[in-house]
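Researcher: I've got a protein sequence and the SMILES for pyridoxal-5'-phosphate. Could you write out the 3D structure of the bound complex as structure tokens? I'd like something to compare against our soaking experiments later this week.
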Amino acid sequence: MSQELFATRHLGIRPEDLPAMLKAVGVQSLDELIEQVVPHDIRLPKRLALPEPVTEWQYLEEVRSKALRNKVYRSLIGRGYYGTCLPPVIQRNVFENPTWYTSYTPYQAEISQGRLEALLNFQTMVVSLTGMEIANASLLDEGTAAAEAMIMSYGLRSRQAVKEGRNLFVVDTEVFTQTYDVLVTRSAPLGIELLQTDLDSYQFTGKEFGLLVQYPDAMGKVRNFKGLTERAHAAEVLVTVAADILSLALLVPPGEWGADIAVGSTQRFGIPMGCGGPHAAYFATRDKFKRSMPGRIIGVSVDRHGNPALRMALQTREQHIKREKATSNICTAQALLATMAGFFAVYHGPEGIRRIAENAHRAALLAHHALQKAGYKLAEGPFFDTILVDSRGEAVIKLRKLAEDAHFNFHHSLKGIGLSFDELTTDDEVEWVVELFCQAQGKRAVPLPAEVEECIPPELRRTSPILTEKVFNSYRSETEMMRYIYKLEQRDIALNHSMIPLGSCTMKLNSAASMIPLSWPEFGNIHPFAPAYQMVGTREILQETEDFLAEITGFAKTSLQPNSGAAGEYAGLLVIRAYHIANGQRQRTTVLIPASAHGTNPASAVMAGATIVTVDCDTKGNIDIEDLRRKAEEHRDTLGAFMVTYPSTHGIFESRIREMVDIIHRCGGQVYMDGANMNAQVGLTSPGYIGADVCHLNLHKTFAIPHGGGGPGVGAICVAEHLVKFLPGHSVVYMGYHPEAIHAVSSAPWGSAFVVPITYAYIRMMGPEGLTHASQYAILAANYLAAKLKDSYGVVYSGETGRVGHEVIVDCRNCKADYDVESADIARRLMDYGFHAPTLSFPVHETLMVEPTESESKAELDRFCEALEAIRAEMEAIKQGNADREDNVLKNAPHTAPELVANEWKHPYTREQAAYPLEWIRECKFWPYVSRIDAGYGDRNLVCTCG
Ligand SMILES: *Cc1c(COP(=O)(O)O)cnc(C)c1O
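Model: Sure. Here is the predicted complex with pyridoxal-5'-phosphate in place.
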């Protein structure tokens, strides 16, 4: 074969570099190293049963043929998913641009100003359209956003309400089915009672703490909730509304009629339906609730020079700090999709967004009028974009067939046929749809009226302006838009600039071949509730990916539904809970979590109704097995699960993992393995082989889905045979019948189905050998860094054989005492060298956790070490008295261009030392757009929208 195998492109280390690297590590061969790293008793006895690899070219041919097996019909199904046009300027410059899709969550704010501004635009857009006071930078989907609103309302109960045991959340009958389903899932473990009822006629009883309505409602009707809201507030009930963001251009927004929380999807702002997701949900509320709000909030602060600078605000609410007291478990959200939806609003501006809303609305008015003329009975308005046709009688059966023959999907339900119009609708389309309805009656088509009467009464019509901020009124030509996007992207470090050595995040190559099919309409334009025969290709990819992941984890079955790692943790714990309940062991709610665990673990466990018991770690960072045994036995009657990350969050393959599993099983608990570190396991060992019962995988880490600046993610869970029947179902789409299945954890049946082909591509192109090599190379790269950095910095933890796993924790704990320098200073100084910092102070305070992954070359690893060593020398200079203790390159990092070219330069070091401390930086200098940001200032003066 003349084509190179993909593995040779994916793996950064060249064969000719191997000898030098092995020598530095001090082993003869890669196998010898792996022998030392991975405990013998958990090594897989045979290679993975996966298909042989295909080349990139072959893959694209193969996936092309799958794409062609999807049928792209025009879906007017609505129910949360609508036709929309992703503007090509955003498709090419954002969606298909590695600067935007390979960047990480903007923890390192100084090198993330571009995506922070894009997310601030999103927040501003949400605030403007909803009329609320504050919005976050996206949640996972509409259903989970509604659940977060329910939980936030629950948490905001007054002391009196808590004492009275108020625990009822009332949901209007006309809320999307999938949203209600997610609420069922999320309410049960917390003891929240749900009641679904017609809220217009509801009398509050004093048991309610919150309510949810949909605006316009699920049948398309725009209801006036002002009276309900007043009654609710009088009864101390918080009002959440799931609102269609586009409709708010025309309707009085929730903020103006008194809602407390507004949630919804921003899919129809240019994001492909993609068989259900990923799409950015929004969450907006009142300013006074900002500290209880889930998810990330971007805020404006100032940098060292007093210039405005953006960063994630109120970080003290984060799970890592608050653990089981965190407000939610949201970590990865939908940053890339929020960025795109924000740009959609930037490009279209207020007139454009109103035009798009009016287009959908006018089409609905036209169709409503014409169908009534044709003799159909329709639900009464007012409506925005969705009309409901009464469909009793035989015309319906004919209509279904006629519509499908004409390649249309309508929404069929007991209540009638729903038609949701959108940005893509034209008059021709409306005419066509009307004609189909006439044909079904055997009648001649009714012409569309020239004029239609507005159905939205004045009291529901929006009069306040939208999107008044400058950014939404500046970029109308494609040239201007392209340059705005480019201006922002130059402020960010992503994988196309340099290695992103974030430990626990696995920032590996996201190959172009795996990304290309996402731009195809055959994958993008599929409505998740379209009939199965229209998504044969997508379903094959989903099914095969599920099977591959089950094989890789050594488990029986996979669910792709959870749309982030934390959502996977939650889903996995619920599956365990359902298993215990089915066994009559409802009391098994104690969850053991090691002190070293990722913060999402305890946060997810609390959401799943668990009581958390923390297990100690010993001085070497390993789980203290005696403490585990003691606590498991002490709680043996209520033990539900043990959550363990493997290799540990310290990057170590603990040798006694099997013993830990045994201890838990003997006490009646289940073992949940956090698979975020799966990149060290694939092909070498597996959670199933080790004996765990469930694991989640972060497909956006190990399996090559790009991180998108903070999402999308896929937190697939894999389970052992005895748990298969509990995997999440879906209320709209048939997922295989299991009466004991838990309710949905996401709005969409396969969560973020649209990005699953990336993982599919990765596994197909790597093949069983390639995947195993990836794990081996990832381990080699980490051990190479450990060998190179152990003298200059020191390595915090290593295993029994003195080796690390796939990541290495670099010690900076003495830097404060020795040099007056903190790990955060080192992180910022790395920016001057053109690097994104490693993971800071997790899981050990004042350390840098480095995960090089298999995709980095030896040359890049060497450059990174050289940078760290140069920084070490800069610290040494402080100690020697050759640099000032306060005014030095570390404390003042990062250095911006304006600062360096200013006429005045008062620092005791040179500009060259600041900007070009090493020769090769000249080749490709990254210029931080802002200097060190004052986070505290921003939190004290919280500003979360742009001017
Ligand atoms: C990344 C990570 C998670 C959370 O995943 P998200 O997709 O961000 O929710 C959980 N556990 C560990 C160890 C992780 O590294």
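Model: The radius of gyration is 28 Å. The longest strand covers residues 208-215.
Researcher: Great, I'll pass this along to the crystallography team.
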